[in-house]
Amino acid sequence: MQPRALMEYMVSANLAFQTKDRIPDIYEHWIARDFFTYIRIAQGSDSRADFLSIMNRPKRYIGRDSLPDETVCFDEWVKLYEEQPWVAERIEKLWYDLKHLSRLSPYAAINYIRRGIGYDDDLAEYAEYRNANKEDFYEVADEILASAKGYRTFEEWFAHIEEYRQELKRLAQEKRRNQNAVTFATLHSAKGLEFPCVFVVGMEDGLFPGNRAMGDEEEMVQKARQSGVLRLVLQKAHDAGGQLLYVLQPAPALHIVLFLQHPHIAGAVTHIFVELHQPQI
Fold first, then answer.
1. Which DSSP string corresponds to 114-161?
2. How far apart are CA 230 and CA 163, in angstroms?
3. Residue 128 class from Cβ within 10 Å (0-12 exposed, 13-18 middle, 19+ buried)?
4. DSSP state of 21
């Protein structure tokens, strides 16, 4: 479970929270901006800048010089490629895809951009070109897709996004700590702190340790360090009152690590696993 999802839920439920770390705004990510641009054009934008942003994501091999004006007219755009019908067909397909997007819910629209239009394939190609891990890009797209779920209209979803972003700005500007608020912290920033009640989230397979750590020696060393930090965090929480220590959705490997390597907190961990519940978020 990602912190963004938890914080957005807190905003929707009007629950006070604060952060120990700077939380990046996922809606500022270039992948999110591409999704929003597709949606903006589907809703009627004819801005040249918008079209230039996404017309080759995925690659359609359309030249930038084919859009000389500040606004775009599809009929004129297609006519420019009368002698290159394969390019004209791609422009017509883009027109069809945009018309289809305009009739979809936010969740269905993001899903269609990724799989129907082929944005995920473009991400994979870009990751290979940049020698990056495509799963990192997919994770960003998955978060945005999950955020859109449950909203019937783009107006509702965008209003929620704006409320969340305003809350991030408020948190960044806030100087005083609120003693009556939930505190979000990473494992590293939580070291040395004590709380009467601690929820440790993100212990699922593929998140802790991450998929990238499997079989990668350098990543495994890093995850081993993180496991040591996790032990310190759990120890602090246990010392402050183990009955209020909860680990949400623990991976099977975490059971083994805690029980075999850290038996001094086994009592608290037993309580955690017995009382474990799936969070309804």
1. IIIS-HHHHHHHHHHHTT--HHHHHHHHHHHHHHHTT-SSHHHHHHHH
2. 32
3. exposed
4. S
Q: Quote the pTM value.
A: 0.66
State the CB neighbour count (10 A cutoff) for residue 179.
Answer: 7
Mean pLDDT computed over every residue of the chain: 76
Higher local confidence (pLDDT), 277 or 20: 20
Residues near 277 by beta carbon (within 8 Å), at least 6 away in sequence: 248
Whole-number Å distance between alpha carbons of 152 and 21: 32
- CB neighbour list of residue 229: distance below 8 Å, 6 or more residues apart: 187, 188, 191
- 40: number of CA atoms within 13 Å, CB side? 16
Please give the pLDDT value at position 39.
Answer: 97
Backbone angles phi, psi at 17, to 5 degrees: -150, 160
Q: DSSP 3-state helix, strand, coil percentages of the chain (rounded to 5)?
A: 60, 5, 35
Beta carbons of 120 and 109 less than 8 angstroms apart: no
Q: Is the pLDDT of residue 98 over 50?
A: yes
Alpha-carbon span 97 to 271, nearest angstrom: 52
8 A C-beta contact, residue 36 and residue 25: no
pLDDT at 193 over 90: no
Q: How many CA atoms lie within 13 A of 101 on its CB side?
A: 26
Whether residue 31 contacts residue 137, with contact meaning beta carbons closer than 8 Å, is answered with yes
Read off the amino acid at residue 138: Y
What is the predicted pLDDT for the residue at 190?
A: 63
Q: Phi/psi at 241 (nearest 5 deg)?
A: 140, 85
Do the beta carbons of residue 12 and residue 160 sit within 8 Å? yes
